[in-house]
Amino acid sequence: MATTTKAIRIKETGPAEVMTFEDVTLNDPGEGEILVCQTAIGINFIDVYFRDGTYPAPQFPFTPGKEGAGVVEAVGPGVSEVQKGDRVAYSAADGSYARHVLIAASKVVTIPDGVDDETAAAMMLKGMTAEYLLRRTYKVGPDTTLLFHAAAGGVGLIAGQWAKHLGATVIGTAGSREKCDLALKNGYDHVINYREEDFVARVGELTDGKKCDVVYDSVGKDTFPASLDCLKRLGLFVSFGQSSGNVPPFPLGLLNQKGSLFATRPSLFNYTATREDLVDCANHLFEVVKSGAVKIQIGQSFALSQAVEAHRALEGRQTTGATILTVD
């Protein structure tokens, strides 16, 4: 029989206040689907992009969110990946801001012992993003010097610890002394307060003019094209978000002028497009967290019904680490 649950709904794009908390009805799981009773939900800037219209909405009304964790409550026909009662997490499904979610079984992974649900919900999208950025977009190692913008953010805190675990020299940027201090406690060798210092000049000083092998930039408009000036010849610019607005169009010749640079715009979706890639990515994340090399920082927690307040905090850059919704 159908399940009646509570969810955040968006009927039109706009500010945080367009989100409402309503009853919704979900069908029974179909072929290859499972029903998950959620315990915790991850919040990410991509949720803001869909809410405010930066990214096109799948339809209206819709439930935002891509990431969550919980317990499998029902299993549809043809499901072999998980069974009823399993603890699962996911990072690439639509509609996670809800007490229950209907999802393809192929998109979830089983949470191992030693990782609690809130940690799993907080780290799947951010942690798997860090995994592909550091291990596949650019293979970070002991010879790598990197710059990571938004070092005190959810991805930034995970990436700092993981990059240091891989032996890299890790430089970050953040917007306050408190955030700089937090990043320094999470793997970064140096953190630049971009409100007080010219980060390009400071990177030059910190690297004795050699600059960085790779720059990871989820800020976008505010840090471009300055990020390119932090790269050594043949360096890689990785744009994986745009919290301040889109990177403006630029001529490809600019990459040549600044040192025959490379540029890429990756996404977790493409790096986990197959079941094999998804499980491999998640397993590497679980392993590094269980080992203690990477600790997940949950900076803020809001009830599901407080999603508006959570988005206000995120957009106001008032958050550190991961932000989650708990199911109320």
TrEMBL record:
Coiled coil spans: none
GO molecular function, one term: mRNA 3'-UTR AU-rich region binding
SMART domains: PKS_ER
InterPro entries, A to Z: ADH-like_C, ADH-like_N, ER, GroES-like_sf, NAD(P)-bd_dom_sf, QOR-like
SUPFAM superfamilies the record matches: GroES-like, NAD(P)-binding Rossmann-fold domains
UniProt KW keywords: NADP, Oxidoreductase
Domain Enoyl reductase (ER): 14-325
Protein's recorded name: NADPH2:quinone reductase
Source species taxonomy: Bacteria, Pseudomonadati, Pseudomonadota, Alphaproteobacteria, Hyphomicrobiales
